Amino acid sequence: MAYEQSQSAIDLDLARAAAAGDNEAFERLYRQYYKRVYSLALRMLGNAMQAEDLTQEVFLQVYQKIGSFRGDSAFTTWLHRLTVNQVLMHFRKRGVKLERTAEEGDFDNVVETPLQSTRRISIIDRLALDKAISQLPPGYRSAFVLHDVEGYEHEEIANMLGISVGTSKSQLHKARMRMRDLLSKGFD
For a Cys-Cys bond, which of 8, 46, 92, 150 suits 134, CB 3.0-4.6 Å? Predict the structure, then answer.
């Protein structure tokens, strides 16, 4: 906990310095969080080249908006939200349509169990999981990553994606079923 508090204080100081025009402070934030942003973008997009492009776009946004970071939350929370929003804007710009397959309430009894900690997953299992996630349709992938990987609630996902809570639940359910199928049969 002491590390988190000190890291938050360091991040806040760096963000303030970067907002004041200190390019070295911005570069430190970039080096510190580049991999985290890229990893999130890759999980949501399922495409390494697009994730790389979006990571650059995210840091361009960070550079432009760093002055709006007030420190009310951790810098990592602010950066995560900026990254998710940038990916969602990418989906909207590209005309990627989210699958709307259910009405609210259709999956009220779906069991919501997050994935095991990624620290306990072997490298081979992790690669298979990443490959399976990348093969999900965009709407399913977004719901799956946001809920099971990132830990958002359905209400938050619905707000982020501009869909109903029922659609979020439906997409998550269908994503899990597809993941189960992909992981049990292997990849052809």
Answer: 46
Residues shown for the chain:
188
Asked if the domains 2-93 and 118-185 are classified in one and the same CATH topology, the answer is no
Q: What is the CATH number of domain 2-93?
A: 1.10.1740.10
Would you call 115 exposed, middle or buried from its count of C-beta atoms within 10 A (0-12, 13-18, 19+)? middle
Q: How far apart are CA 105 and CA 60, in angstroms?
A: 40
Alpha-carbon distances, residue 114 vs 66, 143, 153, 162, 177 (angstroms): 32, 12, 11, 22, 14
Element (H, E) at 137: none
The structure's pTM equals: 0.54
Written as six digits, the tokens of 102 are 């259910």
pLDDT in tens, the chain (188 residues): 455 557 888 999 999 999 999 999 999 999 999 999 998 888 888 888 988 999 999 999 999 999 988 888 888 888 988 888 888 888 777 654 444 444 444 444 444 334 434 444 456 666 777 788 888 888 888 888 888 777 778 888 888 788 899 998 999 899 888 888 887 776 55
Taken in order 19, 20, 24, 28, is the CA torsion positive or negative? negative
Amino acid in position 43:
R
d(CA 139, CA 45): 10
